[in-house]
Amino acid sequence: MSETGEKPLVEMRDISIAFGGIKAVDDVSVDLRPGEVVGLLGHNGAGKSTLIKILSGAYKPDGGEIYVNGEKADISTPRDAKRYGIETIYQTLALADNIDAAGNIFLGREVLTPYGTLDDATMEAETRKVMARLNPHFRRFKEPVKALSGGQRQSVAIARAIYFNARVLIMDEPTAALGPQETQQVADLVLQLKKEGIGIFLISHDIHDVFGLADRVSVMKNGKLVGSASVTDVTQDEVLGMIILGKCPPGATPGPGAS
Amino acid sequence: MTAPTVPAALKSSRASEGSLLSKLEIDVRMLGMLGALAVIWIGFDLLSGGVFLTPRNLWNLSVQTASIAIMSTGMVLIIVTRNIDLSVGAILGVVGMIIGVVQVQWLPSWLGFNHWLTAPIAVLVAVTVGGLIGLFQGWMIAYLAIPSFIVTLGGLLVWRGAAWWVTAGQTIAPMDTRFKAFGGGVEGALGASATWIIAAVACGLIVIGLGLSRRRRVRFGFPLRPRWADAVIAAFACGAVLGAATIANAYPLPAGIARRWAEENGIPWPEGGLFIPHGVALPVVIAMVVALLMTFLARRLRFGRYVFAIGGNPEAAELSGINTRWALMKVFGLMGVLCGISACISTARLNAATNSAGALDELYVIAAAVIGGTSLAGGVGTIAGAVVGALVMQSLQSGMVLLGVDTPLQNIVVGAVLVVAVWLDSLYRRRIK
User: Fold this and answer.
1) A116 and chain B: CB distance < 8 Å anywhere?
2) What are phi and psi of A123, to 5 degrees?
3) For B309, which of A82, A96, A124 is closest by C-beta distance?
4) A132 touches chain B (CB under 8 A)
5) Which of A61, B85, B154, B279 is least surrounded, with the fewest CB atoms within 10 Å of its CB?
6) A·B CB contacts under 8 A
């Protein structure tokens, strides 16, 4: 499966988690290399979001291990994940609506003055820089993010993830709330970040979204991994078969969930 | 050709209208509240035949407001995090009883009566006990995930009962002489010179603060307020401070006390009596310092940012790596500390520790915060708003006392005002959207 001898940036091995007896994620293994985009596909409720929430530290797995750069990583809080350079753009965006863009981008990692107070001026100046790159028309720096449009809120969430030199980026349904033009912007950004050597997990239930951007896909169904494949080895129809029927085509490596 | 120019002209005039307020960067809500306060004050003054707006009444009003105002600054943070604290009045009660026992029964046996350390130790005990009670309740709310409504409803009963338990219901009096200064009154009136010095320092801080904020904006090339706008704000703020100082200094000590003071200081008693100004009261200074510190904490410190983020979106705060539980526990601990400070003020003002001190205070404190624009949905609120809210509540109450309105009717009016104020506020917010 591995084309090079490169160590995976992130490897999740045999991850399981259960909520009240229901196994949301059951023995799933996925990996990600530098500069690679891996699409994580499956129906709503297949366990994709739960799996990546384990990687981002929001949930603690019941079983399994996470390796970052080949070394075992101990991730039990979002803060731990960020320390390993794992940043997440959540489906809900996870923005504090009553705070402005700078406040959200630096939330939990505020820049302080030598006196220990918030250095709002520096944070706003940095926000202006990073937003100029992502969304050049963005002007509403002083307003709470509640007042922003869907696309603007999305760019704030993306800015928060990429500002701190992420090595692994998790994007959960990044284009679900966006129009065609903004969707294209996100796609361009994914390709640009990929060029910078960042590994990206792209979670989506829309196979067309993923096929254009991903190098590999991993498909989940009912909490189990159906299989993983390079996008060059399988057709879109075959992947659709994996998603809907759990049927693993010959071009893919089957997982425990393959029927 | 003319048709398109008309809307353009309209638009530009509207833009400049909006820009006057936005250039001054003044909170329209706050302006509305100060307007309402002015209406209440002038209304009561007319109805009472000019008694309300006298230095004497305003001085008393400021002292009466201090205790509620101090607690309301903490309540803002609690409500901002989508919680509530119903136990503040009961915490005030039990802390008041404990410091009463400490300074009347314990300390005199070690230090002797009227020792200078008695008052500082009493304050330290009040702040510590209040803080520990708050932290304990916060721990149950944050780490055991019991709803704050329940924990503090239980706390209301528990601490009120504990207040009775301290002395089996006995009232303790009188308080230490120096301690009585915390209650205002003659002992706590700081006098004319101190008042002018405090006012001058406050004006200096206002000017320096505006200057610093201007310099920071210049350094980062952010949009600047026009120079005249800064000047107008500075003039208004300093004018308000100096006006308040003038009023406090226009209220003389009663003749008997002034005479005693003159005798103690070897000043001959003149024919027409001596005009010795009260000056600002110590509890009022404490309340203002608390309000400033709390504003600083809410706006300039990381802790304050976390409090607002938790209120805006608890899940997002958690996912950002904020230790939301510890932050929540600290918010309740802070509330307890403020209850301790208020306990000192109300015990000293009454010159007695009674187990019913602070009864119903929780409702006035919550009302002050809510009238001051704190949203019960969380995430929104200002310290300054809560202090003005406390002043509105207290103005209504003491104005009606002045007019001789019966207590039941007073409660009806205050209750109705609370509901109407929140209704108007929600209308305003909806229009802003």
Assistant:
1) yes
2) -65, -40
3) A96
4) no
5) B154
6) 77
Contacts of B309 in chain A (CB under 8 A): 96, 99, 103, 107
ipTM of the complex: 0.88
Q: How many residues does chain B have?
A: 433
User: Would you kindly state where each structural domain of chain A is located, as residue ranges?
Assistant: 1-29+62-74, 95-166
Contact A92 B222 (CB under 8 A): no
Q: Please state the pTM of the whole predicted model.
A: 0.89
Instruction: Pick the more confident residue, B310 or A150.
Output: B310
B contact test, residue of A82, A86, A98, A123 with most B CBs within 10 A: A98
The alpha-carbon gap from B37 to the nearest alpha carbon of chain A, in Å, equals: 27
B97, B349 Cβ separation under 8 angstroms: no
Rounded to whole angstroms, how far apart are CA atoms B56 and B65?
14
- Chain B residues with CB inside 8 Å of A110's CB? 302, 305
Tokens of A258: 């393959």
Q: 3-state DSSP: chain A helix, strand, coil percent, rounded to 5?
A: 30, 25, 40
* Confidence at residue B19, expressed as pLDDT on a 0 to 100 scale: 55
State the DSSP code for A20. Answer: T
A22 contacts chain B (CB < 8 A):
no
Alpha carbon distance B226, B234 (integer Å): 13
User: Which residues are CB-contacts of A225 (< 8 A; sequence separation ≥ 6)?
Assistant: A27, A28, A29, A30, A218, A219, A255, A256, A257
The C-alpha atoms of residue B151 and residue B137 are separated, in whole angstroms, by: 7
Rounded distance between C-alpha atoms, residue B311 and residue B305, angstroms: 10
Contacts of A117 in chain B (CB under 8 A): 296, 300-301
**Interface contact A107, partner B, CB < 8 A:** yes
Q: Please check whether residue B389 is in contact with residue B322, taking contact to mean a CB–CB distance below 8 angstroms.
A: no
Query: Rounded to an integer, what distance in angstroms lies between the CA atom of residue B377 and that of residue A49?
Result: 28
Q: Which residues of A touch B316 (CB under 8 A)?
A: 93-96, 107
The string of DSSP letters for A87-155 reads: EEE-TTTT--TTSBHHHHHTTTS--B-TTSSB-HHHHHHHHHHHHHHH-TT----SSBGGGS-HHHHHH
**Average pLDDT, 10 consecutive residues per value, chain B (433 residues):** 38 45 69 90 93 92 95 97 96 96 89 85 96 98 96 96 92 90 87 92 92 82 80 91 92 84 79 83 95 94 96 93 95 98 95 91 93 89 94 93 90 88 81 65
Q: Is B322 left (phi over 0), alpha (psi -120 to 50) or beta?
A: beta
